[in-house]
# Entry
Amino acid sequence: MDPALCRELARLDSVEPITASGGQDLPRVELDRPWHEVAGLYLHLGYVHILPRGLDHILFVLALFLASTRFRALLLQVSVFTLAHTLTLGLAAAGKISATPGIVEPLIAASIAFVAVENIFLKDISRWRPLVVFGFGLFHGLGFAGVLQGLGLPEGQFLAALVSFNIGVELGQLSVIVAAWVLLFKYFGQEWYRPRIVIPASAAIALTGLWWAVQRAWPLFA
# Structure
């Protein structure tokens, strides 16, 4: 379990200890609480999983942003990404599907590199981009589900916790997009925007994604 998320959970009143990774005893959260308290907690956990802790998801969203100077194109990509990761997050949380983190995490990193490389070599978004983004969103949803499995979902407030966590994730992603838009939208029409902003930023994102993919996949072959 992510120690930072453990601390968020342990911040609430507790009744008995649990053991986190590394053997450290942490208080167990009393989950018999009003739904709005549970919803507020998981909303916060979903948000901070993106900002500031989810650098891989941040880079993926930024790669989508860099490819889209038109709002409609960006909205379409973000919407299909949201639909995809919501689907797999819900199914995994309900125990209908499962995936090994050792496989999912390298694929998430590879998806970052793929989208960023596509930004470099394709000036205009291909008609297949939304479908590709949807496919990658499925893997990201499994990644989010892995976080929830570490946290646990309260049986009596399962739906409130799941929906709130997902909304928190969406708010985190929207925060990234809004911040990038505010910083860069006035330069969209400039001739130098693509060679000086899109390509260098996409190259940096691609290299980071490739490094993560190798780093995360290495244990599979060691």
In short: The mean pLDDT is 84. The longest strand covers residues 14-19. Helices lie at 3-10, 35-50, 55-66, 71-93, 101-121, 129-151, 158-184, 193-221. Strands lie at 14-19, 25-29.
